[in-house]
Design goal:
This protein is an alpha+beta fold. Helix content is 35%, strand content 16%. A hairpin with a 3-residue loop joins strand 1 and strand 2. Helix 3 packs across helix 4. The structure holds zinc ion (ZN).
Length: 185
Amino acid sequence: MNCTSCKNGVLRPSFIDGLFRGHTCTNCEGNWILIEDFVSWKEQNPEHQIPEPTEWSEDKLDDTASALLCPVTGTIMRKFKVSAKTPHRVDYSTAVGGIWLDKGEWELLKSEGIAGSLNNLVTQQWQTKIREESASNTFAEIYQSKFGTDNYAKIKEIREWLNAQPQKADLRAYLLAENPYSAIE
Ligand SMILES: [Zn+2]
């Protein structure tokens, strides 16, 4: 199997982290992993903890921005975000259920604590969760820059406290009233 990423290497059978079966490119060191291989390894080793990343850093990461072709079928693979915290995306071939990880991406997944969920990354539920997280992160950033960090932390705390009170409707009315001591309704 030829590498569709660097187009110079050959994908040779390997064991990713010495754990489960995959293929590694002889040139760019990217990894090709079939979801079924990963899942069957997980099923057979439910207790196994994936090791911590070794000497990992962002700049060691290759991330192909362009569309990649599936090394098996030659069709265009889909890109999937892996978490709301990182812009990096993995490539997935829906045709054969295979994931392409550029060099360093497996370490990235480990450092984000999601390597054990590799098979879930390419599901609808995971992608929806990322979109929701990204949206709420964006709102948090907007509030923070609007109110200032200290005020935002304070108002957030008040809000949480308020929402936990059984009399929250009355408390909110009191808080928002122009003059809560005025006799005029
Ligand atoms: Zn390659």
